[in-house]
Amino acid sequence: MAEGFTLFLLSGMLMCGLLLHTVSQHGANVDKPSKKPNFIIILADDIGWGDLDANQPEEKANNTPYLNLLAEQGQRLTDFHSPASTCSPSRAAILTGRYGLRNGVTHNFAVGSVAGLPLSEVTLPQLLQKAGYYTAMIGKWHLGHNGPYGPINRGFDYYLGIPYSNDMGCTDLPGYNLPQCPACDSSGPQVIRLKRSVHGGCYSKVGLPLIENSSIVEQPLDLWTLTEQYKSTATRIIRNARYNTRGQPYLLYIALAHMHVPLAPPLPPEVSAAGRRPDDSKVYTASLREMDSLVGAVKSASDDTDKDNTLIWFTGDNGPWEQKCQFAGSVGPFMGKWQTSRGGGSAKQTTWEGGHRVPTVAYWPGRIPANTSSSSLLSGMDIFPTLLSLAGVTPPSDRRYDGIDATNILLHGEQTGHEFLFHPNSGAAGTFGDLQTVRTGKHKAFYITGAAEACGGATRRQQLHDPPLVFDLERDKPEETPLEVETPEYQTVVEKITRRRETLLWDIATDKSVSTADYSTDASAAPCCDPRQAVCRCHTQR
Ligand SMILES: *[C@@H]1O[C@H](CO)[C@@H](O)[C@H](O)[C@H]1NC(C)=O
Ligand SMILES: *[C@@H]1O[C@H](CO)[C@@H](O)[C@H](O)[C@H]1NC(C)=O
């Protein structure tokens, strides 16, 4: 009976937690300014847990000095998980605080998607905007680009970025990928082809658009200038917030193009000077350093303006895209060996640790204790309740949430976190959204295993496990050897998680606000600034 109630209680407790927090904040605010905090969320794309130097100091890499500084002045969250292992579901869960089975987004949207994150879902920026925040977004949206589905209509006052991944459209100067994608066709009549061309899975007909607010301002986008555009826009927004005459706090959500291929990094001088295609092995780290310096610029703009009142939260949307070989990031020790020894990849698109354990740092001078780390089990879904709690906003009570308020972990060093955390299938074969893997404490159970494409193309079909495979992540970070089924340890874990999984599925089935996403596609839904031009070519003066 206790289990049956726990989940309902949890969602109840979440609300209570928020209310209590609001109340206690009023109580404690005697000596503190009542200003609402600013929030900067930086979401990297396809970054690996091992890409953050501070996660593996023994490797002595020096690719992320600014992120290391953020960690040294803030808190590193070492057991933090993206809510899904691919772009759209992960982003939808971050912005709604709910699993894909509730918010409807269980796999990626396409260039021709007519819809996006269901309009019945309530987003974080929407709630903060209503509470008086100025809300801005820079970067990849990937939650539907047409009409009401775009960021401007989902709670953001300002938007600059790409509507989906940077490989979902051609560019005139291709970046680094595997295989190399061809440049945009520059001649011939416009034919909007939604299918990827035979050219190694690259899009070649619809140019990658850059969107400001709701308008295409550049198509095809010059990938090689994107970092600079994001950097100058982000720092402008942060600096302008100081002069905001309405005295509004702000939310700035930066969803970076880094580290998703195609990569377009500034290359080391010796490579550029040679005037030839550089050594591929240098491209990923050059790009990682470029991302890191962008994070550094954001931190420094924030430090110069409203330092003590701004929370910066850096994390990733899913693990590395392993099939891209030398253009993919590092999973660190989380190698998913049970899977890789049988064939196939174990990072992005899978529920192996490499797919969803992401490098995460939270920084808030004077509020988050400096140079600390927490191994609390946390998820990107927790950003939603945590920021709302810090802003004193209560989310609508007509639906259930899966994120937890991590305020006390961030600010007061509490080592709590999720008692159970589910990882949905979001890319590998099988049913999208299926809660195929569960974490509790140091244990992780797989009801279903599945592989992504590995470097070299190997893959492996999904496999059902009854009884489930259970790994002890403390002893076995590479998820190599499951526990013996006969052991008491195994029996206890499986009993616990089986009950909890049933409870959660029941909770979702009885949630009155479950949304269904429309995944239909149509050629006319592709963003195109000038249909008379090949690749929808146009540039406007901004
Ligand atoms: C986007 O909105 C901002 C105001 O928030 C405005 O200054 C800018 O001109 C708009 N850009 C476009 C392309 O409409
Ligand atoms: C941060 O902590 C590490 C390890 O605990 C220590 O070596 C380092 O000196 C600390 N850095 C600062 C700036 O206090």
UniProtKB/TrEMBL annotation:
<feature type="signal peptide">
    <location>
        <begin position="1"/>
        <end position="25"/>
    </location>
</feature>
<dbReference type="GO" id="GO:0005764">
    <property type="term" value="C:lysosome"/>
</dbReference>
<dbReference type="InterPro" id="IPR017850">
    <property type="entry name" value="Alkaline_phosphatase_core_sf"/>
</dbReference>
<keyword id="KW-0378">Hydrolase</keyword>
<keyword id="KW-1015">Disulfide bond</keyword>
<keyword id="KW-0732">Signal</keyword>
<dbReference type="InterPro" id="IPR024607">
    <property type="entry name" value="Sulfatase_CS"/>
</dbReference>
<dbReference type="InterPro" id="IPR050738">
    <property type="entry name" value="Sulfatase"/>
</dbReference>
<dbReference type="Pfam" id="PF14707">
    <property type="entry name" value="Sulfatase_C"/>
</dbReference>
<dbReference type="GO" id="GO:0004065">
    <property type="term" value="F:arylsulfatase activity"/>
</dbReference>
<keyword id="KW-0325">Glycoprotein</keyword>
<dbReference type="InterPro" id="IPR000917">
    <property type="entry name" value="Sulfatase_N"/>
</dbReference>
<dbReference type="Pfam" id="PF00884">
    <property type="entry name" value="Sulfatase"/>
</dbReference>
<comment type="similarity">
    <text>Belongs to the sulfatase family.</text>
</comment>
<keyword id="KW-0458">Lysosome</keyword>
<protein>
    <recommendedName>
        <fullName>Arylsulfatase G</fullName>
        <ecNumber>3.1.6.1</ecNumber>
        <ecNumber>3.1.6.15</ecNumber>
    </recommendedName>
</protein>
<feature type="domain" description="Sulfatase N-terminal">
    <location>
        <begin position="37"/>
        <end position="393"/>
    </location>
</feature>
<keyword id="KW-0106">Calcium</keyword>
<keyword id="KW-0479">Metal-binding</keyword>
<dbReference type="GO" id="GO:0046872">
    <property type="term" value="F:metal ion binding"/>
</dbReference>
<dbReference type="GO" id="GO:0033889">
    <property type="term" value="F:N-sulfoglucosamine-3-sulfatase activity"/>
</dbReference>
